[in-house]
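name: query_chain
kind: protein
chains: 1
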Amino acid sequence: MDSLPATVASALAEADSETTDWPAQWQALTAVSVELQSLLVTDPGPRLLALIEQIVTQLADGVATSRRHRVELAELAHRVLGTHARACAETEPDPVRLADWLLDLQLEHPDAPDVSLAAYGDALDDEGLAHYRRRAVELFTPLPVIGFGETGRYDRARWALLRVMEELAEYTDDVDLQLLVLTKDLSSGWHYLQVATVLRDSGRSDEALEWVERGLRAVGGRGAALRLIDLAVEEHLRRGAPQRAVAVCREAFFARPNLDVYLKLRALVVHTDEWPPLRAELVRHLVQDASRLAVEVYRRIVEVELARRGIEEQELVVEWLHQLRGLQPDAFADYLDHIKSRHVADRELLDELSRRGF
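structure:
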């Protein structure tokens, strides 16, 4: 038993040598793994547990330093760690000491091996798990938040802590831990959406909507904006607050005109008395904006309303075409030809356009 660490050390020392016989060294390392499993049957106890921990650490060091055999050594380290978990189940070690060893192993060796807390559930028990959680949170909390638009600063230490926290959150099914992890990276709107979704799914609706609002302010109508709006609309409707759903879409449209947001608003209020004045307000905003984006959205809205028009919509579309001609006098003729070609079979529309001077 006592000779096993020396065998591992010798094999690892020769692993990257140009002249080494790697198959022979690998055979020696795997034989150590097999021997540890045999000792677990014949000689379990604290001494064996300490031996396995020493060898796991040796292999993890080997993963970090090897240039050629990182993958094989990582797999072997994971296998020996599995033997360690079974040894803990047999010997019932001090749970706090075990928690410290597992945490230190991961933080000092970010590359390998992965620790599954489920394999150590009984050995850690409530005391060890609470200690593990407390230390992990204390270490993770001071990490800086990656702000919107920033590049993630994922050095080895941060990756190791992130992996620890993600495993801990999953094992404990702790939403607060999951949120602590997610809110450390707010570099894009999709991260805000993740936070809001977790909060929504855990029944924390007010907080979810707060994060949607934060996300919409950050993205400025780009990226994940539509998904954030969808979540807010669904949640407000579920809560019986359709006016809040309308307000979210209206504010988003004013922040950055978008046909999809227009269609969401239309679907929410088209069958109510609110739609005509709201529609007029949206179009007026586009006319006042007159940016390239606003005009493009304006043109697409005209085509949407043409496809769905009744008598009222026809009158509105004609009025909007007048406004559009004022916004883009040079490009309007080509756009009007495009409209007519798309509706060449609609004689009623073409006659009406001609009668109105188009």
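note: The chain has a mean pLDDT of 90.
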